[in-house]
TrEMBL record:
Entry-linked Pfam families: cNMP_binding, HTH_Crp_2
Presence of keyword Nucleotide-binding: no
Transcription in keyword set: yes
CDD domains documented for this protein: CAP_ED
Keyword annotations from UniProtKB, A to Z: DNA-binding, Transcription, Transcription regulation
Residue ranges of every copy of the HTH crp-type domain listed in the record: 155-223
Lineage of producing organism: Bacteria, Pseudomonadati, Bacteroidota, Bacteroidia, Marinilabiliales
Name of protein: Crp/Fnr family transcriptional regulator
Amino acid sequence: MNLEYQTDGYCSDRQSISAKDCFDSLTPNQKDLVEKSTTLLQFTKGETIIKQGFVASHILYIEKGLAKLDVTNDSKLSTLKLLSNDSFVGIMCSFACKSLDFSAVALEATTIRMINMDLFLSLIKENGEFALKLMRHMSSLTNEIMHRTSRIASKNVEGSLAMILNEFKEIYKSTSFTLPVTRVGLASLAGCSKESTIHTLAKFHKDGIIQMKDKQITIIKPESLELIIKNG
């Protein structure tokens, strides 16, 4: 078996497959079936979308909005990932067992498409391209979460907070945005205390790296933020 040939094109620098890319590989009839057979639900800011331990009866897909994916181990809550438009909610864990091993909370008004698990599994069986893209998408997410978790754990307060601010910059595609969380929520995302978060934000503001007014954040020196992420 020529392993070099078999793995060609799947190197680490290959562009990742998004959840939308997966659905784009469905046939017109399959897309129509998904549209007609699924339910759209609206969640307000702060509302729980799914709770850890619930039965895995549906695949959840964010049509529009922002949410955080959490997992609780030994009574300690950890945020694995921020989820924005066109994202599956916990797709990596949805096939692992009958109950979901994660929770998700809306950080702003969020629209969720609920896809019946049996329908989703039938699409995987019937459409090889969809199945392959889904597999690559899940692998990419797993890799991303592993590296994010490792980086957050190894950073000091400045480094982890800089990472979270940079994530919001990428989600909103702007250096100026309104934080969708409180200072306590931001501290939870960064894995540090509220006091450390407030102190570090004030330091970033004083050093001219960001401008801050209430929840409005403007990143003035993105290159400095990147340097803090690298060295923090």
